[in-house]
Amino acid sequence: MQERIEGGAQAPRGPGTGPGFDRLVLALGFALVLAAGLVAHQTELAQGFEQSVLDREFALLRDRRPQPVRKEVVLIGIDEASLDAFPEPPGLWHPHLGRFFAAMAEAQPAALGVNIVLPSHSFQQLIPGYDEKLIAGLAAIRDKVPLVLAQTVDEQGKFRKIFAPLVEAAGDDPLGSTAVCPDTDAVLRRFGAALCEDRGGHGLFATKIARSLGAAGPWQGWIDYAQGEAITYVPFHVVMQWVDRDPGKLRAAFRGKPVLLGNVLRYDDRLRAAVPLSAWEPARRRVPSVMLHAQVLRSMINGGLIRPAGQPLQWALLIAAALLWFGRDWLKAVALALFLAGAVALGLALLQKGVYLQLGAALLTAVLAYAARFVFEAVRGRREKRYLRDVFSSYVSPPIMKDILAGRIKPSLAGTRATVTILYADIRGFAARSQALQPEASIALLNEYFSEMTAAVYHCGGTVDKFMGDALMAIFGAPQALDCAGKNALESAQEMLVRLARLNARLAARGQEEVRIGIGLASGPVVLGHVGSHSRHEYTAIGEAVSAAAHLEKRSRELGYPVICNAAVAEAVGAAGGLADLGMHVVRGDARERLFGWNPPLLQAQPVVAPA
């Protein structure tokens, strides 16, 4: 059989391939994957995914590994109950705020940040002496407690004006900008003057408080959302009750601690955080702006804002991700899973230490490398199979080619037993005929003849095993299983003879001698497998049925039938087809066997082929 499988060697590849070409293609694929990762890292292509990964990292750390803070920020919140507690609107809280500032001067917090909208003009003409109450309170605290007043921003992004005497009473340069610049998804993750222009020229609110506390930067980076527990607050109206009734509670709650005053109203002055921060709204990421400034201040006074990882580490991670382009077996899936888990674990560990390793581009690069190589191998596999099919279509029968490409025929030398039908066909007198022909004419005739015969075998589900000079051997029932191999073999023999008649008509038209053949069919057990050496072997059948079919073909010359088969074939098809019982005959040696002759129905109108 011509279906040769080179043991241990790779299948032939198409034009322009080979080890060197493969190495070049793999190197180019790696370079493209790495370039895609670098572009995603350096541009905004992976920004959304990058931000989502960072938020999930913070959420995981807050849930599983919350980091306690050494220096906590105390929040005094103006909530709905505080609004109800005072008859005046917040813009006219001058007396209450004046008393609050004076009381905080005695309570001695480490610093006080006021993140509320302060009056923009005087109320002296409406209520004489009203401004002095607030100014007096600011003057009382200015030399005792570091004080930062928020320079807030209106709906148009412009800084609100603050009544000048209030600013003067608070001290030298007490203003701090509360302007923030969220990311493209409106989430505030980063903080620093370089990110958002300080149009007020006074510095940033949280930065000025942190400096007054002696914190040593960095003043720009990512907010550490893993710091601290969920934030609570002391209601402003409760603080004012302490001012009037129990100043000792003020000292116990605020002494030596940084304190922020701001609105915590449900729908007013809110920003979107990377994770929920509020203890009273544990699932809500839109939090009061004063709470976000409190988290920024937490970060600054407990190790500083998170700084970016060095570029060499980022590039090393991207290169490691792109290396998943290499490799082809199931271990690559394991490597992908390990890389993803390892990268996330490394990112979490560094984030806890105040270093942000951007994972988004690396994770996407790893998945891209894995998927791209999978697609590449699928395309290359289909191309190689197509090339194999094209190259060996004239050498290998379709069933064998199909099983080779599907991996069902393995290049091992082990054998299997099966019951099949062997077809053996031979041209009568071709040896003498070839002597009278030119070599080219002999080969041309054989090729034309075998083209017709192999087509008949393939059409009926058979497999061409081998060509031996002018003889052909085919197998029915392996490797392609058949319900009745004997029936398929008889149908194939009939089609071979029909095609032979057409061939002879063409030969006669060209003035050439016709071709006469005999066909022997034998069913029986055989051993199927690869025969030969590890460097060259062929898939074939071995057994008595093989030699029996060859002997039966020879008997067709003297028995007067173009097709001779043994009793096993006849029993398999029953009375179908009109097989003629020829009685017992000596086939090999002294063994006698019942034989059957067959003149296919499609050839009944033609004369029976005479014995040679």
User: How would you sum up the global shape?
Assistant: rod-shaped
Sheet with the most strands, sense and barrel status = 8 strands, mixed
Quote the beta fraction: 15-25%
Helix content: 40-55%
Brief digest:
The protein has helices spanning 19-42, 47-64, 80-85, 94-107, 130-142, 164-170, 205-212, 236-245, 247-254, 289-301, 311-322, 331-352, 360-392, 398-406, 430-436, 439-459, 485-509, 544-559, 567-573, and strands at residues 74-78, 111-115, 147-151, 175-177, 187-188, 190-191, 221-222, 234-235, 258-263, 270-273, 286-288, 307-308, 355-356, 415-427, 463-468, 471-476, 517-532, 537-542, 563-566, 580-588, 591-598. With 612 residues, the protein is of the alpha/beta class.
